[in-house]
């Protein structure tokens, strides 16, 4: 991210509340965003005020690409395309096309809400997608799925991720302990955060395979070589020294994980939470092609993740 505070779109006038057991959540029609998630009286993500602009893409669904496209330009199946640059200081197209949209309500009950959107076809992305997000609360936390269906006649490049900022507890982020089941990370250029090479975490400050304090380490990188359990799930765990914590799980559809320690310079609040973003592809995948999904006409792609109190 940048040192500026980014505000996403217009205010979020419409939202839907859900609850189950000790969990409550609020989801906004704008961006299909998870505005708030609580366990009892404790926030599990960094919230933003009801009806407000969305700061720093908190809780949004990033699609049809996660992270960034360099210069907003890419080639696909022999044709060149250009999408709007919305990260001016780095000259990139950030977090896709659907975060400024108001998503339509598909269903809503006490414990779940389902929203959909269909981004307009443009010269830069001339494909017809229908994207559906469902948030469902249970006794064990939040479960979320995002499905994209290609309704058009052309193969579409596609990727997706959620964008929550996790809260482990009341202590400063430096004191939180982090566990990330990833054996490699993507080294990026310091000025634009664009991919350079994948490196192993052995001996590096980004090795969080065993839980340890984040300390002063600044992270805004994608991780891969993720270890999934026998059920096909991977988990990030974050613990506060007071004894509270939060976890995030995701399925094998997301072979990449962006971690960001939300570092900012004054006057903006620094290190408010830990962004944890399971991604189906790495940054600038529209150019590299790495793990880029080719969504064929009539096909559907579904990814899932969840957040739970520890």
Main beta-sheet strand count, sense and barrel state? 9 strands, antiparallel
Name the shape in a single word.
Answer: globular
- Give the helix/strand class: mainly beta
Query: How would you classify the quaternary structure?
Result: single chain
Give the termini separation: 27 Å
CATH class identity = Mainly Beta
Q: Strands across the major sheet, in which order?
A: 12-13-14-15-29-25-24-19-22
Percent of residues in beta strands:
over 45%
How many structural units, i.e. domains? 1
CATH fold call: Beta-galactosidase, Chain A, domain 5
Order of helices and strands: EEEEEEEEEEEEEEEEEEEEEEEEEEEHEE
Overall pLDDT metric: 96
Estimate the helix proportion, in percent. Answer: under 10%
Unreliably modeled segments: none
DSSP, total strands? 29
In CATH, the architecture is Distorted Sandwich
Q: Give me the number of helical elements.
A: 1
> What would you report as the Rg, rounded to the nearest angstrom?
18 Å
Organism: Pseudarthrobacter equi
Protein name: Aldose 1-epimerase
Pfam families: Aldose_epim (PF01263)
GO biological process, one term: glucose metabolic process
């Amino acid at each position: 991210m940048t040192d500026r505070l980014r505000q996403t779109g217009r205010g979020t006038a419409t939202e839907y509340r859900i609850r189950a057991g000790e969990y409550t959540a609020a989801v906004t029609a704008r961006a299909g965003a998870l505005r708030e998630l609580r366990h009892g009286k404790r926030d599990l993500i960094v919230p933003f005020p009801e009806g407000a602009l969305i700061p720093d893409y908190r809780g949004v669904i990033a699609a049809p690409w996660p992270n960034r496209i360099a210069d907003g330009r890419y080639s696909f199946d022999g044709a060149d395309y250009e999408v709007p640059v919305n990260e001016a200081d780095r000259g990139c197209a950030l977090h896709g096309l659907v975060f400024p949209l108001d998503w339509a309500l598909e269903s809503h009950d006490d414990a779940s809400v389902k929203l959909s959107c269909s981004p307009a076809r443009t010269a830069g992305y001339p494909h017809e997608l229908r994207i559906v997000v469902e948030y469902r609360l249970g006794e064990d936390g939040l479960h979320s799925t995002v499905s994209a269906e290609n309704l058009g006649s052309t193969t579409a490049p596609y990727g997706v991720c959620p964008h929550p900022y996790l809260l482990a507890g009341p202590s400063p982020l430096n004191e939180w302990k982090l566990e990330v089941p990833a054996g490699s990370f993507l080294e990026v250029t310091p000025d634009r955060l664009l991919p350079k090479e994948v490196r192993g975490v052995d001996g590096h400050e980004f090795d969080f395979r065993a839980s340890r304090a984040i300390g002063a380490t600044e992270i805004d990188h994608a991780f891969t070589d993720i270890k999934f359990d026998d059920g096909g799930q991977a988990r990030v765990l974050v613990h506060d020294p007071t004894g509270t914590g939060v976890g995030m799980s995701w399925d094998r559809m997301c072979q990449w994980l962006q971690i960001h320690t939300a570092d900012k310079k004054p006057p903006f609040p620094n290190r408010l939470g830990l962004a944890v973003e399971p991604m189906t592809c790495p940054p600038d995948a529209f150019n590299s092609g790495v793990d880029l999904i080719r969504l064929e006409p009539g096909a559907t792609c579904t990814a899932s993740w969840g957040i739970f109190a520890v």
